[in-house]
Amino acid sequence: MTAFLIANMAPIMFASLVVVLLLGYPAAFSLGAVGLIFAVIGIELGEFRPDFLQALPERVYGVMNNDTLLAIPFFTFMGLVLERSGMAEDLLDTIGQLFGTIRGGLAYAVVFVGALLAATTGVVAASVISMGLISLPIMLRYGYDRRMATGIIAASGTLAQIIPPSLVLIVMADQLGKSVGDMYEGAFIPGLVLAGLYAGYAFLVTLIFPKAAPGLPKEAIGFREESGSRGLTSLGVLFLASCVFGWFMMRNSEAHGADFVVLAMFFGILFAFFVAVVNWIIDKLTGFRFLSRMAQQTTFVMVPPLFLIFLVLGTIFIGIATPTEGGAMGATGALILGAMKRRLSWDLIRQATESTAKLSAFVVFILVGARVFSLTFYGVNGHVWVEHLLTSLPGGQIGFLIFVNAFVFVLAFFLDFFELAFIVIPLLGPAAEHLGIDLIWFGVILGVNMQTSFMHPPFGFALFYLRSVAPKDRYTDRVTGKRMEPVTTGQIYWGAVPFVVIQVIMVLLVILFPSMVMHYKGVQSNIDPNSIKIEIPQIDLPPIDFGQPKQ
């Protein structure tokens, strides 16, 4: 029996962890307890030295000394301040007006704003709750199907999981031993493509079921000109001019991929903001405007989040700031934005700080528990067992990726993304590297996959967030005065199912088209390292007389 335990300690330990987690115990304490129990068993069986656990304090100190993880509280604080600053409300109102009477216009607005909030907040809870509070009543008021409305809100909120500055990408980069900046750059395009797939699904729904996503009635559209026109031509011209200006400023730049997009966007928004400010000044002085009300309103609403995106992501991508420094600048920018909107208060700062402290403590506790577990697991060569198990799968890289993604997809029903990142990723990373898989590509694939943990009925956190703000009882709409039916939990769950399928499709697309991620490497050098020769010139030195040795 003793020999059997020693020989199979790794699989028994892993199975014990799974059982304890399924019993519902908190992940941090489950990891720590299983690690300590099996460490004691190993010491008793003679597998470990009696002083085996003396390495534990140093590993825990390593968690506290990890500079990369400092970015998590900064980005969390930034997201929570922005949630309360009213930015989401302004964006949803303006973008909803912009799409106007188009069928599915509010759904497109939710996807667009969800992507913008993801690129500024990085916090799923903040995005889902904000859009649920603001856009769900409007969508229900104008006759949207409840499954369509709840599904698009929950799914768009989860874009904060994959679009930088996502918190899970920070953890993934740390666990895989890779640069957070590279992980952000690799995830940038897949995040935008996923947002495009959500919008594409909304478009299909409007074609097949037109009544499920109607457009806004004409009387609900504001920002009109004196002539009654909406002024979209003026907005279109300003948008094209901004794009051209951004491209012109970057035409000779060596930037590529996400770097080029973010920098060109920065110059474009500066141009648009300057034009809108000049238009506003001339209007105040003379009453003449060369921009429509819609163009000016859209510009003033869009510039702050876009500038914040550059402040955070742009500085990271171009190498000016580390992710921690970018998070600090983002948090400062969020405070300034809140102050400009006159919504910054000590109560707001206190609430955001408390929530940030709770989430940061949650992350650190899980990481400490994972360090305790991994110490024992590595001590029994568990990492070697997992690596041999995964690398022996049929199909090579593709077989490995299919199995791993199916495994993570199933685990996402029971574990949230932080638990998956701290428990599973350290075990999968070495096997992926052994098979020659790029770890940034691998991390982005799993990041998209773990996004399903927010949408899985019945345990998806995004569904819980939306359930907390969706009407549970019949209510009277404050605009129309009509009695409205509540949103049931079943409608929220069924609304999430198509978007889980879309997320799975996105995982397949990232696997099939790795160039969506691999652009982070940029232009590769065409110099063969083996052809490089270093020649040290020979220098003739005069002989040195050291003198006669002393007698």
Summarize the structure.
This protein is mainly alpha-helical. It contains 24 helices and two strands.
Written as H for each helix and E for each strand, in order along the chain, the element string is HHHHHHHHHHHHHHHHHHHHHHEEHH
Structural class: mainly alpha
The biggest sheet, with number of strands, parallel, antiparallel or mixed sense and barrel status, is: 2 strands, antiparallel
**Outline type:** globular
Query: Uncertain runs with pLDDT below 50, 5 residues or more?
Result: 523-539
End-to-end Cα distance, whole Å, is 74 Å
**Strand adjacency order, main sheet:** 1-2
Average pLDDT, all residues? 81
Beta strand %: under 5%
Q: Care to count the β-strands?
A: 2
Portion of residues within helices? 55-70%
Number of H/I helices: 24
Quaternary form:
single chain
C-alpha Rg (nearest Å):
27 Å
